[in-house]
Amino acid sequence: MTNSISDLGESDCYLITGTNTTENHPVIATFIKRAVTQKGAKLILVDPRNIDLARYATVWLRQKPGTDIAWLNGMMNVIITEGLADEKFIAERTENFDALKATVSKYTPEYVEEISGISAADLKAAARLYAGANAAAIVYAMGITQHITGTDNVKSCANLAMLTGNIGRPGTGVNPLRGQNNVQGACDMACLPGNLPAYKKVGEAADRKPFEDAWGVKLPEKAGLTIPKILDGAAHGTVKALYVMGENPMMSDPDITHVEKALKNLDLLVVQDIFLNETAELADVVLPTASWAEKEGTYTNTERRVQLIRKAVEAPGQAKPDWEVITMLANKLGAGWKYDSARDILNEINKVTVSYAGISYDRLEKNSLQWPCPNTEHPGTPILHTAAFTRGKGLFSVCEHIPAAELPDDEYPFLLTTGRILYQYHTATMSRRSKGLVSRTPEAFIELNPSDARNLGVSQGDKLEISSRRGSIEVVAEVNDRCEQGVVFIPFHYSEAAVNRLTNPAIDPVANIPEYKVSAVKIKRVA
Amino acid sequence: MSITIDGKELEFTPGQTVYEVAKANGIYIPVLCHHEQLKPVGACRVCVVEVEKARSLVASCAMPAENGMIVYTNTERVLQARKLAVELLMTQGHHNCITCENSGDCVLQDLAYSLGIEAPRFSEPKEIKALEQANEMIVRDMNKCVLCGLCVRACNEIQVNQVLDYTGRGPTAAVGPAFGNLYENSDCVFCGECVRICPVGALFEKQGRFQGRADDLDKVRTTCAYCGVGCQMDVNVKNGKIVKITTPREDAPAPNFGSLCIKGRFGYDFEGHADRLTTPLIRKDGELKEASWDEAILYVAEKLNAIKKNSGPDAVAGFSSARCTNEENYLFQKFLRAVIGTNNVDHCARL
Ligand code: SF4
Ligand code: SF4
Ligand code: SF4
Ligand code: FES
What we know:
The structure holds two protein chains of two kinds.
Chain A: H1 5-8, E1 13-17, H2 21-24, H3 26-39, E2 42-46, E3 59-61, H4 68-81, H5 87-93, E4 94-95, H6 97-104, H7 109-116, H8 120-132, E5 136-140, H9 142-145, H10 150-163, E6 174-176, H11 183-188, E7 195-196, E8 200-201, H12 205-215, H13 227-236, E9 241-245, H14 249-252, H15 256-264, E10 268-273, E11 285-288, E12 297-300, E13 305-309, H16 322-332, H17 342-352, H18 361-366, E14 369-370, E15 394-395, E16 414-419, H19 435-440, E17 445-448, H20 450-456, E18 463-467, E19 472-479, E20 487-491, E21 519-525
Parallel strand pairs in A: 1-2, 1-5, 2-3, 4-15, 5-6, 9-10, 10-11, 16-20, 17-19
Antiparallel strand pairs in A: 7-8, 12-13, 13-14, 16-21, 18-19, 18-21
Helix pairs in contact in A: 4-7, 4-8, 4-10, 7-8, 13-15
Chain B: E1 2-5, E2 8-11, H1 18-24, E3 48-51, E4 58-59, E5 70-72, H2 76-90, H3 107-114, E6 138-140, H4 150-158, E7 164-167, E8 174-177, H5 193-197, E9 203-205, E10 218-223, E11 232-238, E12 241-246, H6 262-266, E13 281-284, E14 287-290, H7 293-311, E15 316-320, H8 326-340, E16 345-347
Parallel strand pairs in B: 1-5, 15-16
Antiparallel strand pairs in B: 1-2, 3-4, 3-5, 6-9, 7-8, 10-11, 11-12, 13-14
Bound molecules: iron/sulfur cluster (3 copies) and FE2/S2 (inorganic) cluster.
The site of one iron/sulfur cluster has 12 residues of chain B, from helix 4.
């Protein structure tokens, strides 16, 4: 997030898209709901599903999944045409505006209506609300990123914020909500194939140098492979060993049938986890680890806030914290590492990672801190880009609408979109082992519109077989008005009905993110 | 602008209540139906104070401070009124502290004790209500409800879940989901804000019941294991076991200020689950068999070495975890880059 969670309470207008916030970031949703119900803030919701936030929305635009660039460009078209852009901000803080203007000029509300199904009048109303606010915040999540155009979707959100000067001030910003507790930290720490910690580039000699000095080795220059490419490599035999720490690709990755083939083709699969998850079942070696309550360390939340976790209880049996396991293995391979605690490791991170330099364990014992925090006197940074962007001027990117990779047709007439629900979490290895959470949502389901249900002769609770070009699963019918006719939703938490057997592995060419939000399926009643 | 409380002249900013000015200056006034995150309603009269020139005692939680006001928090008149208020609250239901989950962590118990109430002057109602235990998360014991309304206001004003409301009047007055529904059959999403804020033992965590009370619990401050909000919470531990998850009732820190969702508050029990892995496993003859750490680490190291030697470092790859710590993620990529020599490291950020 460019801004902070508390800061979200200061907005007088929200543009919320691709996040079912009340279910997936429930506590962040409370800030938004309070501002709307108690302070009169406006809420523009753009979501294909009738999610809980629709109840609070000033306007709700129901786009066809996979048409985000179109409506975002459309909003910009209206803002420019009606003279609502922030000329001063554009002149002082951005570049490439003319190219943006030229591109969005063809996305008239009428043209956007054809592509996205959003009425021209609603689009105009939304554009005026957003541009007219003093402080407007864009909030998004995987509904924006999990498309073949994910990168351009994100850039389009940034375009819209810059066009109206809604960046760098309290209550504004472009605020992606990160799904998992430490996805932000895993990125910061460079568990990414092209990065070194703090977003340095493996391909730049100058970026590698400090790490080579600190670690005392020569580092590889060639960017590594992303998850989809690693799995392809495994399938083709070029990747021979895979080490999986706290991950479950047999549930979380698209086209699981392909994933399974790839994993079985490896010479060595090591899985380090707290449970024998679906991936561990295929492993050659399984290493037991401590859970979050059984070890020390830090997580970085979605607003870049670094916070401690503390050991409350002992790990079961011989399970050890992940850092201890990696250290043992590195030392067996002759690395000579000397870490005795999470604190030792954070000390090293402080030394090699500029944005974390001032975030010491001692300070965290007292207070959390938001990076960038370059020294131990620095108070941390609640809002990014207040005076300038990381690259100096903000660059308007030119993005064009591209249809989703696989759209419904005669054989697979329904558009499937996937996601999470309040009562479960990711691949559910944890949440499906919690009595309370299981009691709320015991089995996999599909959300189906009442008209579609009627046409298919399906009633509430019927068992249905859902198939795509890649596989099929069985789920229970949940007939409600959350999805529009022709669109269905299945959460991805259930291994016995893993929706990623159906999803399309088509990926965004830049970020390599799979298009989980759009694939084509057919539906059949089972007995 | 200043007011005088118990002889001390104190500055205040317009809009502050007498209670807030007192609290900010370390002067103790007890409150029960008031909470710092909610609008005051002035219902219980536990917080009464004497204001010079005012005819009756005033509820300090709802009284805006005014320039020149002279306030006393501790006069005999105040103590008598406070006692009466507490006695009335105590006899609205049945407060059997012996087996109450909140004993030791109860605003009413503290008040009764500190005011020296041996036995309330009034008698308790005859009726004993059945506990609501239909769901796995929250137990409701309406015998202990003092009708402070905090749960209703927290559900509506803090979480904005709009589930709880006041029902009935006089002797049938109650709080709960509309139409007297059970939590289970209402729109309740089990965030547990009502449990956090209830000042007595009327709402409590089901799985923690009879597992340990305030005095035997160690609270360990930590960060939620689930989503990217990073809520701060306290793991309550007794005899090496997690009993429940709580958040501070007051002065709770960012980013969540005491709020959680069902996953954070009630989804912790995977930790002690029987399915936890407790020993390394190595596949032998097609089956995963128990092994020692030494065997397992040696096995992995030898295999990795061989693959690296025969096929080069880029034949090795690693998936890291968005659920592990920064320290672990840092070491994981350092391991692949500096020890193995490949940049083939990624994690599930996109999934
Ligand atoms: S658990 Fe949350 S939603 Fe349910 S009644 Fe309590 S405050 Fe309201
Ligand atoms: S249940 Fe608790 S919080 Fe709600 S009114 Fe009764 S005593 Fe107050
Ligand atoms: S309590 Fe809920 S909202 Fe808070 S971090 Fe945990 S999962 Fe996220
Ligand atoms: S706390 Fe002030 S009236 Fe209840």
